Each structure stands twice: as structure tokens, then as C-alpha cells.
Amino acid sequence: MIVEFKLPDLGENIDSGEVVKLLVKVGDVVKPEQPLLELETGKAVVEVPCDVAGRIAAVLIEEGDTVSVHQAVFQIETDAAVAVSAAPPAPKKEKPAPPPPVSTGVSAAPGAKRVARELDVDIAAVKGTGVSGRISEDDIRDNVQSRVPKAMSTQVARPLPDFARFGPIERKPMSSVRLATAQHMAHAWNTVPQVTQYDFADITDLEQLRKRYAEKVETLGGKLTITPIMLKVVSSALRQFPAFNSSVDMLTRTIIQKDYVHIGVAVDTERGLLVPVVRDADQKNIQELAVELARLAEKAHRRQLGPAELEGGTFSITNLGTVGGTHFTPIVNWPEVAILGISRAAIEPLWKNEQFVPRLCLQLSLSYDHRVIDGADGARFLRWICEALEQPFFLALEG
After folding, report:
1. DSSP letters of 39-53?
2. What pLDDT, in 10s, does the model give residues 321-344?
3. Quick one: which of 77, 231, 282, 300 is 20 to 30 A from 397 by CA?
């Protein structure tokens, strides 16, 4: 018999993806758990496994296509004896259930249905913004927020002028990574009333120590740049200042304090900006952080990051020092409440011991959510980080 293999659910808020690579062709014999294709979903490339045993009878997609969840992508010839679960079973007719109602005819991610139940929202009345009107968690929350006064107005997209009137143009579609970044940054900018605090650290002594241990870390598979050092310092700072390791929920008027430290580090790739997450950063030394960061960065460049490696961050770090510049204003990576930007270190004259002396100074930019963090606390947090960098004995490079 011929069955259709449909793209399965890939996780919350993932409605579609771009086919990066087809791993099978017509005539290939497949078995359960065998990868059939590589799919880029927003910022991660995932392998989609088969769930039946049989032979590929038809390939319904091509590399580069954008496919939606539950869309048929293969036809597979399978024996009648093989258990088939290529698509979700058709819903059975049931007696009316008590409220709160969640209409099963509605296309919605599992997480969206859970949030609808928690917030007592009739999901059938929510307009979905995903592919084919699929409803996401954000759609549910936006529906609730639309019924209460907004602290900040959301910019409405306006049509652009006809640029072709003024000269030749070329339209290039956004990649899935660029689109995901654009949507997330716009949401963060419209949601978070952020402030940016600037400071600098004298890292002259730290730089000598970094060079001393760089070769040792390299033999372990890592690279001892300022970023893994900053991971260690920031993870310690988050334990000292727990407000920076939280999220704010205005719907329930609560602040969610997290008792774990997972730090996202921005990686510049040829496809755009990716932010893999270093988990339990406070429980690792600098050598371990350098090795793990190198592993994640390599996977980011090879398009091998999985969704789990891009989720769960409690704070973010972005380093533009290798590119240049003195200061910049990073955007808070919602639903986190703070992000640290690192600029290029430079030799500057500092007044020490009654004279100006050349010192290596590192410029830092801290953006934070002013709904949760006051200005004085932002200044204290950043000053704590600077003082830690200026005292190399604070950093346990060994052990």
C-alpha cells in the first residue's frame, strides 16, 4: 500500500521550514528513525526521521522548497502488515466537553493550546499568524494583550514606495534565519522598554594571563578569547544579581526567577546571526566554557545546531570586538531581561600613580529591561563585571 509521509510537528512555534537536503530518493528502502531530509526551521537545521518501513515511491518536494507542518513530502510503499502513523489520526467525534473550549478544528501548535487553557482563551476566536493561519503561543498572548491597555504601541507595517520608479532594483527573499531574526527583534524592541549602560574595564593584566593559558586551552579544542572569560564572569555576576537572570510576565504580573544559568552567545554566520546556548555556565571553568563555545560555534557554521541548543537562555552575550567599533546598543533578547555587548579592546591613557600610563581597555555595553531592573542596579551589575575582569586572581583558569 502507498502512504503519505507528512512533515511531523517539530516543536512549539515551528510551523514550517526550508528543505536543505533530501537524504533519500525514489526507490530507496527506508526504516523507522531513518533521516529522510534536513530541514531548516528558523535558526536550526534538523533531521526529519521516517516513521514507517518501506520503499520511497515518490518525492513530493525539492531542495530549497518551504514546507509546512503536516504537508505531504513523500509517498512510501509499505506492506499492509507495517504499522503506519504517517499522519495524525482523524479526530473522533466526542460529546461536548465542559469549558474552557479548545476547538480541534483549529490549526494550533500544542504549546498554543496549553497557553490558551492557562489563560482561559477561546482559541477559536484567535487569529493565527503562522502558515495557513496556524496559531502560535505569541498569537494567544497577543490576543490577551489586545484587550488591555498597551504600555507601548506596536508599529504597523506600511507599504513601501515603488522604488523601481527611480532606478533598477532586485528583490531577494529573506532567508529563514533572517526572517526569524527580523520578527524576533521587532517583537523584542516593541515589548521591552530597554536602557543601555556603558562602562569599560582595564584588562591589561588579564590579557597577559589570557596569552599565558591560550595554548593550553587550544590543545583541549577551545580558543581562549575574551568571550569564554566573559561567560565565566557573567555567570558569577548573575548569581550575585539574580534580577538579571529572570523574565517578566506582564499577563500575570509576576517576575520569573530562574535557578539555572544558561547563557546565549551570538555567533555571526554566513546565514545570519545565531545564538547557541551554553548551559549551566556557572558550573564550568573557563577552559570548559572555551571548549564548549568552540563546539557550538562550529556547529552553527556547519548548520548542525538543533532546536534544543538554541533554547532556554537566561542572558545573552554578543561580541563585536573582532569586527571593530567602540560602543553599540544590543537589543535585549526577549524573554530575557538583559544582554551584554563587547566591543574591541584598545590601548588608552589612564591616570595611575600621578601619571598617564598606556592600558588595554575593554568597552562594554549592557542593555536591560527597565521594567525589572533599575538604573542603579544596571550600573552596579556592569561595574561588578568590570572589577572582576580587572582582578585576574578572580578567574580560576585551572581546575
Report:
1. EEETTEEEEEE--S-
2. 888 888 899 999 999 999 999 999
3. 300
Nearest to 336 by CA among 248, 268, 232: 248
Distance CA 25, CA 56 (A): 7
- Among all chains, which residue has been given the C-alpha cell 569586527? 323
Which residue is associated with the grid cell 532606478? Answer: 167
Contact 53, 59 (CB under 8 A): no
Q: Which residues are catalytic?
A: 370
pLDDT tens digits, one per residue of 203-213:
999 999 899 98
- 203 and 343 Cβ atoms separated by less than 8 Å: no
Specify the range with the lowest mean pLDDT, choosing from 134-143, 198-207, 296-305, 341-350.
134-143
- Delineate the domains of the chain, giving CATH numbers in brackets: 2-77 (2.40.50.100), 195-301+308-394 (3.30.559.10)
% of the chain exceeding 90 in pLDDT:
49
Mean pLDDT along residues 34-54: 84
**pLDDT for res 394:** 67
Distance CA 184, CA 170 (A): 25
The burial class, CB within 10 Å (0-12 / 13-18 / 19+), for 22 is middle
Q: Please answer whether residues 245 and 258 qualify as being in contact, where contact means their C-beta atoms are separated by less than 8 angstroms.
A: yes
Question: Do 22 and 10 contact (CB within 8 A), yes or no?
Answer: no
DSSP alpha helices (H): ranges in the chain? 110-118, 137-145, 176-191, 204-219, 226-240, 286-301, 375-389
Whole-angstrom Cα distance, residue 88 to residue 80?
A: 18
Per-residue pLDDT band at 153 (split at 50, 70, 90)? very low
Q: How far apart are CA 147 and CA 359, in angstroms?
A: 55
Q: Pairing relation of β-strands 315-319 and 338-342?
A: parallel
Residue 334, classed as helix, strand or coil, is coil
CB-based contact 398:268 (threshold 8 Å): no
Rg of the chain over all Cα atoms, to the nearest angstrom: 25
- What mean pLDDT is reported for the chain? 84
